[in-house]
Specification:
329 residues; 8 strands; alpha/beta; globular
């Protein structure tokens, strides 16, 4: 089983000489945080040929891959002896290049989901001389990157695995994103030189709003108000440690995200997983249509768990993973 540093072949920070955003803005000496798990296999030119890139959720980093240890252990569908997993802290997140780590704060260049994809692609080429990967897996906001990657660069991967995500920001998600942006922009302290306690309180309020879509409808209905209060307090504590500038740029980048018209470009075999009663990603509008929009795809809806722990453990889908991965050994 994967367990902490025992399974990490390499952790590091890589510096890109420069990175060009879609907007045309360029940053120099761009930092990328990453780690490698598993067993790399190489072609005759020394390039890794069994790499699976992991794309983390809205609040995450390179270490988020360890959440998937139940399905990536010895003898499991994603056996670390069979595959090499590269997990990258994406553009805009500490401790990769972000508003907080660069010190640019509100002056950081605005970025898109495609910028985040190109950030990872440039890193893979620069660090490992890779211009193609075996597969890409992830969930939540990481799924936005996966859909975009496969739409824009369809020849660069063999398979995709996406859980609880969508191909566009619309409806409920758009309203939440706009509300969060409005809360941040209404606070004059956002443009102060010193990061004040006021900004931390704003982030706590935002996290209370975000908790409204943290678990499924079923789980919310089964919890008492006292249980909700306890779990919400635990959840919003993260807001105290979330930089408001990192958060704002991350939130802004999803508002115009929409690859629906490009999904026909996807060539990779695709497995899409989703909770049947997810509040944030609607099975009816975000998931089920993908079977018709992506040629070689399979959609699996599963019942939400009842222990209030969210969707970290996908081991109950083990047979589905084995079936999907049998063609990619």
């Amino acid at each position: 089983m994967l367990s902490g540093n025992d399974s990490i072949l390499g952790y590091g920070k890589h510096i890109l000489d420069e990175f060009a955003f879609e907007s045309g803005k360029v940053l120099e000496n761009v930092e990328v945080e990453y780690s490698i798990y598993g067993t790399p296999k190489y072609d005759d030119e020394g390039r890794i040929i069994n790499a699976i890139i992991y794309c983390h959720k809205f609040n995450g980093n390179y270490s988020s891959f360890l959440d998937e240890y139940q399905i990536a252990g010895k003898g499991e569908p994603f056996d670390q002896k069979e595959y090499c997993f590269i997990s990258i802290t994406t553009l805009g997140f500490p401790d990769s290049c972000s508003p907080s780590t660069t010190g640019l704060k509100h002056s950081f260049p605005e970025y898109t989901i495609k910028d985040r994809v190109n950030f990872k692609r440039q890193f893979l080429k620069d660090k490992f001389n890779m211009d193609r990967v075996h597969g890409i897996a992830g969930r939540g906001l990481g799924g936005y990157e996966i859909f975009t990657w496969a739409c824009e660069y369809p020849d660069e991967m063999d398979f995709l695995i996406i859980c609880n995500s969508s191909f566009k920001t619309s409806g409920f998600r758009y309203v939440i994103s706009k509300a969060v942006a409005s809360i941040i922009e209404s606070n004059d302290a956002f443009y102060d030189e010193i990061y004040s306690e006021t900004l931390s309180r704003v982030m706590v309020s935002i996290y209370r709003l975000l908790y409204s879509n943290h678990v499924s409808k079923q789980i919310f209905q089964e919890m008492s108000n006292d249980e909700i209060d306890v779990l919400m307090d635990d959840f919003v504590d993260e807001g105290l440690f979330t930089d408001i500038y990192d958060f704002k740029f991350r939130n802004d980048c999803i508002q115009d995200y929409d690859v629906e018209d490009k999904l026909k470009n996807i060539k990779a075999k695709t497995l899409i997983l989703s909770s049947a009663d997810d509040l944030y990603y609607s099975p009816k509008y975000d998931v089920l249509p993908l079977e018709d929009l992506i040629e070689d795809s399979k959609v699996i809806l599963f019942e939400s768990k009842k222990d209030h722990s969210g969707y970290e453990d996908y081991s109950f889908l083990m047979d589905d993973f084995y079936e999907f991965m049998k063609d990619f050994k």
